[in-house]
């Protein structure tokens, strides 16, 4: 792997050129492929639950292994790549996901399922911090737009995974997961090309000087910065703990409450995830135009009326409400990430690793906790309990206003 050394100040410079949409498109596509692979795991939970005779707690543990592997390593990867960017590390991350995917297709014990989940999580840990930096470098100063384009690829992949699983894996069985290795191989090819662009870009900014137009440090004390990060992480907790109830258990909720077949429940999960993808693409540009804080505030707290109504809705209104929830709630992440980058300029990899990693960790913790709650109570109780999580959005009122 070729390692290029650069100065942290290079990440502080505002690139006033036009966004490099070819690179942003390639990053979005690779994010789609990466998250499509990841989303196969929860998408086939009903199949694994029957085939391996698992309870909800064991299903939650699979998600916990995947999410914690990704979350614990991501900040460390981001911190390292802030110091020494690694243009082709993303290729190795995708290769780890490929190995995990192949192992998942042939696993015959619960232990093998956990190892496969860990390998896919490792691939995610390597992918996100450096890909976040690449998206910012290619943004041309339109940071929210760049993050939305990058993140919507991940949302699209997460939405496509359950849909493809419904039509390929569910009817053909566990071994058919191997067909998705084509997605990983495509990702490796795309990331090789992006790595070459990144290497050239780093070579052109390897000896930067601070100048007018650089991103200023926020006028906040160290304690205020730490407190602000804590608030942002609390909002991430609210968002991803709630989202875990959908990614891991929404199909079970639909099957149990409305008596739907597995394939049809996967289609409704796709509808929800598609709405989340639309929310992601809107959140960044709106934040560029009106500021990050209003988007964060509206996204987290504004979803509360819909989450409170969901447990009491019939099937038609359940679909309508989940579309609204996905659309509104997903718009927060691009705004939160760019806000954090403005809070810690020059630490783009660390910010990406910390926030994506924490998001994955909370998703994994949510899956494990909610699985146990479902075993001890009911799957309906889970959605009634989670409906109040958006109240944490009130904490957004304490976020300081940063320059755009």
From TrEMBL:
It comes from the Bacteria. It comes from Methylobacterium marchantiae. InterPro entries: MFS, MFS_dom, MFS_trans_sf. PROSITE patterns: MFS. The chain crosses the membrane at residues 21-44, 56-79, 86-104, 110-128, 149-170, 176-198, 225-245, 265-283, 295-313, 319-340, 347-369, 381-399. Keywords: Membrane, Transmembrane, Transmembrane helix. PANTHER family: FOSMIDOMYCIN RESISTANCE PROTEIN (PTHR43129:SF1). This is MFS transporter. The keyword Methyltransferase does not apply. Residues 23-404 form the Major facilitator superfamily (MFS) profile domain.
């Amino acid at each position: 792997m070729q390692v290029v050394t650069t100065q942290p100040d290079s990440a502080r410079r505002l690139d006033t050129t036009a966004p490099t949409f070819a690179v942003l498109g390639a990053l979005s596509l690779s994010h789609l492929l990466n998250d499509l692979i990841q989303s196969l795991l929860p998408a086939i939970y009903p199949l694994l639950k029957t085939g391996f005779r698992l309870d909800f707690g064991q299903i939650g543990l699979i998600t916990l292994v995947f999410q914690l592997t990704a979350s614990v390593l991501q900040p460390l990867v981001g911190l390292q790549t802030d110091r020494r960017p690694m243009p082709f590390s993303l290729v190795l991350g995708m290769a780890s996901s490929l190995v995990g995917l192949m192992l998942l297709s042939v696993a015959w014990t619960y232990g093998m399922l956990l190892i496969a989940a860990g390998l896919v999580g490792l691939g995610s840990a390597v992918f996100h911090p450096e890909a976040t930096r690449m998206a910012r470098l290619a943004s041309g100063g339109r940071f929210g737009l760049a993050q939305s384009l990058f993140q919507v690829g991940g949302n699209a992949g997460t939405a496509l995974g359950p849909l493809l699983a419904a039509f390929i894996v569910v009817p053909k069985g566990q071994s058919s997961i191997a067909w998705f290795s084509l997605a990983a191989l495509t990702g490796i090819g795309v990331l090789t090309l992006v790595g070459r662009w990144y290497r050239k870009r780093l070579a052109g900014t390897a000896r930067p000087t601070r100048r007018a137009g650089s991103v200023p440090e926020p006028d906040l004390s160290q304690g205020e910065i730490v407190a602000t990060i804590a608030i942002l992480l609390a909002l991430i907790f609210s968002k991803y703990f709630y989202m875990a109830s959908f990614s891991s258990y929404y199909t079970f909720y639909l099957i149990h409450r409305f008596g739907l077949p597995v394939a049809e429940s996967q289609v409704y999960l796709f509808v929800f995830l598609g709405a989340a993808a639309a929310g992601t693409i809107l959140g960044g540009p709106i934040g560029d135009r009106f500021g990050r804080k209003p988007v964060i505030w509206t996204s987290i707290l504004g979803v509360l009326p819909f989450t409170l109504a969901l447990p009491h809705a019939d099937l038609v209104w359940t679909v309508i409400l989940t579309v609204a929830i996905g659309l509104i709630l997903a718009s927060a992440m691009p705004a939160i990430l760019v806000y954090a980058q403005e809070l810690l300029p020059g630490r783009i990899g660390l910010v990406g690793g910390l926030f994506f990693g924490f998001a994955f960790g909370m998703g994994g913790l949510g899956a494990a906790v909610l699985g146990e709650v479902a075993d001890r109570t009911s799957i309906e109780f889970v959605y009634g309990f989670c409906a109040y999580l958006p109240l944490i959005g009130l904490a957004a009122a304490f976020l300081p206003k940063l320059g755009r």
